[in-house]
Automatic annotation (TrEMBL):
Subcellular compartments: Membrane
Signal peptide: none
Keyword Ligase: no
Pfam families linked to this entry: MFS_1
Keyword set, alphabetical order: Membrane, Transmembrane, Transmembrane helix, Transport
Residue span, Major facilitator superfamily (MFS) profile domain: 26-438
Annotated protein name in UniProt: MFS family arabinose efflux permease
Length: 438
């Protein structure tokens, strides 16, 4: 099957013009790239304690380094890069982004002081900001609206895979070779994915959207933002995903440190535990959700919203309790009921966002989600939790336990996230029609 002169896929039995095997090969490559994105991001949270010890940092400084530094530039660069993804060859953009964040991951391992590490971390954020919007946009153009909940659930497995690599691999490599060598090894792990990207073909934008009959003119920043704001269901899904990311992923940033301080785990032991929870168990939970999406694909889309609301509310309970109990075994058991499920919402929520957005603004819409979610996950959560932990440490008898109380309090925000997913149902049907996905 050849690419036409316009650079788009030729017509075929499937609207994308691609065979079943090719569509899922594209999805597999996008998932691998996403896993590397998450691994390079997650590994630094595994390395918090040795980095903190070497550079003599406070929890607030660690929160700024691991979260705020990445988030500020990730989100600042993300919006213009999202617009760019709606205008350029997306495959090439993903390749450049992957190369850039990998180079700066290696630079993190070579840093000799806090400021050098900070600058390298910023570079990682800018690179990663250019990878996700074009990836989501490409997947949406290879799969029908009814198929996207399945496709995005498979894509979301990259979170579990990346978390496992960052947690287990990061912990074991650090104990064996040190944290610097660990980061350099992670940087070179992107080479196979760069080669695999060469096999991907650029699809026609909007190829799989039944309500899109012509290739619309590219809107500017204000027009794209105005469309997003006009979609009430889309706004609620973005808000729900943002708060859920804070209540789940934001807390897990600190979980290795929490296990070390409150329960005596070493860096390797904590990384292994969190890696198994996020990776092995998280992948199993997401695979189960993927099969559930096969059934929900034939149901009214509102059931995806109900699923997201119910799941987010349910896992809030063990998420809070895990940081309150003092018994080590009980805390680990509760974390196993929390951590594996925090990323299950990614696939269904991303599918809803793609279906609630017109093809010509998909890259920008994904960038908006990344902006809000990563401000919550990478900037607010690490910094605010670290700040509150520092305040509590000066006011309680055992300062080492300050982190547990900060994490327990912020875990309650899961209730807020669940409400947004539920509220999206009200205008879901009309907003799907406006996006051309009905």
């Amino acid at each position: 099957m050849d690419v036409g002169a316009s650079g788009t896929m030729p017509a075929g039995s499937h609207p994308s013009g691609a065979s079943f095997i090719r569509r899922y090969w594209v999805l597999a490559v996008m998932t691998l790239v996403y896993a590397l994105n998450i691994a390079d991001r997650f590994v630094l949270s595994t390395l918090i304690e040795p980095i903190k010890a070497e550079f003599a940092l406070s929890d607030s400084a660690v929160g700024f380094l691991t979260g705020v530094a990445l988030a500020l530039f990730y989100t600042t660069a993300g919006l213009p890069l999202g617009i760019l993804a709606d205008r350029v060859n997306r495959k090439k953009m993903i390749g450049w982004a992957l190369a850039i964040w990998s180079i700066f991951t290696a630079c993190c391992g070579l840093a000799q002081n806090f400021w050098q590490l900070l600058i390298a971390r910023i570079g990682v954020g800018v690179g990663e900001a250019g990878g996700t919007p074009p990836s989501h946009s490409i997947i949406a153009d290879y799969f029908l609206p009814s198929e996207r909940a399945i496709a995005m659930s498979i894509y979301a497995l990259g979170v579990s895979l990346g978390s496992a690599i960052g947690g287990i691999g990061g912990g074991l490599l650090t104990e064996q070779f040190g944290w610097r060598t660990c980061l350099i090894i992670f940087a070179f792990a992107s080479t196979p994915a760069l080669l695999m990207l060469l096999t991907i073909r650029e699809p026609r934008r909007g190829a799989c959207d039944p309500g899109v009959t012509a290739h619309a003119q590219k809107p500017g920043f204000r027009e794209a933002l105005a469309f997003i704001r006009s979609q009430r269901a889309l706004m609620h899904v973005i808000a729900g995903g943002t708060v859920a990311t804070f209540a789940g992923g934001g807390l897990v940033w600190w979980t290795p440190a929490f296990l070390g301080r409150s329960h005596g785990f070493s860096v390797g032991e904590a990384g292994l535990q969190v890696g198994l929870m996020s990776g092995a168990a998280g992948a199993a939970a997401m695979v189960a959700a993927m099969f559930l999406m096969f059934r929900m694909a034939r149901m009214d889309p509102k059931w995806q919203c109900y699923f997201l609301a119910g799941l987010t509310l349910l896992i809030t309970i063990p998420g809070v309790a895990a940081h309150v109990v003092s018994d080590r075994a009980t805390a680990i058991a509760l974390l196993w009921l929390f951590v594996p499920f925090i990323n299950v919402m990614i696939g269904p929520s991303l599918a809803l966002i793609q279906n609630l957005t017109r093809p010509e603004v998909r890259g920008f819409t994904v960038a908006v989600l990344l902006f809000t979610a990563n401000i919550a996950n990478l900037a607010i959560a690490p910094q605010l939790i670290g700040f509150v932990s520092d305040i509590l440490a000066a006011r309680i008898a055992d300062p080492a336990q300050s982190l547990r109380y900060a994490l327990a309090g912020f875990g309650l925000t899961g209730i807020w996230a669940a409400w947004h997913f539920y509220a999206a149902v009200g205008s879901l049907r009309s907003d799907l029609a406006k996006a051309g996905s009905a």
